[in-house]
Amino acid sequence: MNADKLRGLLSAWAALMTEKRDWLIELDSVVGDSDLGLTMSDGFTAASEAAAASDLTDVGKLSYQAGKAMATAVPSTMGTLMASGLMNAGKVLKGMEDAADTDFFQAYLEGVQNRGKAQIGEKTFLDGLQPAVEALKQGKTPQETVEIAWDAFQHTKGMIAKHGRMAIRGEASRDLLDPGAAVAALMMQGYAGIPA
């Protein structure tokens, strides 16, 4: 992951979240307040635009800057979580012009987890991203991780939600898919589509 690849990744995420905005709104309308599609499309667009406007070559500083832009643009719960991922990746990779993609995604995952205080298995974004990150670490291709992330999203049906509005439903949340895990799957899809 270098600065140019990160710019490409953020651009891919912005495009994909915008393309899937209505689907995310629909998913979120069942369990949340229907703003997920707007939050993700606006947030990743802000991150992408900030990165594109910067001439930084330090991938950590660029990631942090993009995260700050996202946090400002979409100060909602999910917006803050996604921005925290970018900002933590920024802190971990600061001073690097080239880093392993796995290090970027691991730092992103940890940033979201630290901010949201969720654990794997609690029906959140983490349940979509963590299996994909582990697969990358094991040498799976980006394309293979897409399938793993979508499968992980499907498997949030059956989990009981411990966080957010869905948690209010208790046992009834078991029958629902988690919209946050859908965002994670879209992120891996965007990653697989950019040049290596």
How helix-rich are the residues, as a percent range?
A: 55-70%
The oligomeric state of the chains shown is single chain
Let me know the average pLDDT: 95
Total beta-strand segments: 0
- Can you say what the CATH homologous superfamily is? DhaL domain
Order of helices and strands: HHHHHHHHH
Largest sheet: none
- Helix segment count? 9
CATH class: Mainly Alpha
How are the SSEs ordered, and which strands pair?
Layout: H1 3-19, H2 21-31, H3 36-52, H4 59-73, H5 77-93, H6 101-116, H7 125-137, H8 142-154, H9 179-192
Helix pairs in contact: 1-3, 1-9, 2-3, 3-4, 3-5, 4-5, 5-6, 6-7, 7-8, 7-9, 8-9
Q: What would your notes on this structure say?
A:
The protein has a single domain, classed as DhaL domain (Serine Threonine Protein Phosphatase 5, Tetratricopeptide repeat). The N and C termini lie close together (9 Å). With 196 residues, it is mostly helical. The longest helix has 17 residues.
